[in-house]
Amino acid sequence: MQKLDEVSKMQHSFTASIDRHRKNLKDLTQSLNKCSKGLTGEEAKQVEDIKGHIQERPNHFLQMEAFLPKKNGIYLSLVLGSVNVNLLSKQSKAAYKDEYEKFKLYVTVILLLMAFICQFFVSNRFVDAVLNFFFVWYYCTLTIRESILISNGSRIKGWWVFHHYISTFLTGVMLTWPDGELYQMFRGQFLAYCLYQCFVQCLQYYYQSGCLYRLKALGERHNLDLTV
Asked: Strand, helix or coil at 201?
């Protein structure tokens, strides 16, 4: 416990140090902009070199902050509170990312089988509700896991996370839709779409995981990049 307290104090110290460096770099940039007029060619070149080094610093800060605790976003704060979700090592981050990928694949296969059963063998509103509840749980879980990955430095595109929020809402509508003529008219189309989507996602996973592996080996992708 003492070691954990020491690590926590060091992390907060590093975070405060990075904030101070950011402020100092901002002040330095403003000073250089004020002094950049009326300089000789050599002095102007030196100023440009300094500005180039300053522009590189934010990337270094981001790499360091990936291993430091940070305030959770609005969504994670609502779901988890102020719990620190930052993982301490690259191995832990990569393992969590791999677990996320496997979770998507396994649940997608289960949803594919359930949608197939509902489409061709069972026509019951309760069974449909179980499938829709599973969809709601799946998309809610994805949004939480993706928010944690983003907090740990993953470069997940905003549209990818946003479309999972929309999917959560829409599957919630399907879950609460009362049985009736309109529901039965839409049910077959919805289940056919679920079958198509789950099947494509399985194929997409195997194709993109291979592409992502090759790109990582070539150093062209980040370790926390995802298959989408």
From this structure: helix
At 137, list the tokens: 């749980």
Query: Are 171 and 135 in contact, with CB atoms under 8 Å apart?
Result: yes
Single-letter code of the amino acid located at 221: R
pTM above 0.90, yes or no: no
Q: What is the pLDDT of residues 27-67, one digit of tens each?
A: 777 777 777 666 677 777 777 777 777 777 777 777 666 66
**Residue 114 burial (CB count, 10 A):** 20
- How far is residue 199 from each of residues 5, 16, 111, 176, 209, measured CA to CA in Å? 47, 48, 10, 25, 16
The CA distance from 75 to 96, in Å, is 19
Distance CA 37, CA 57 (A): 24
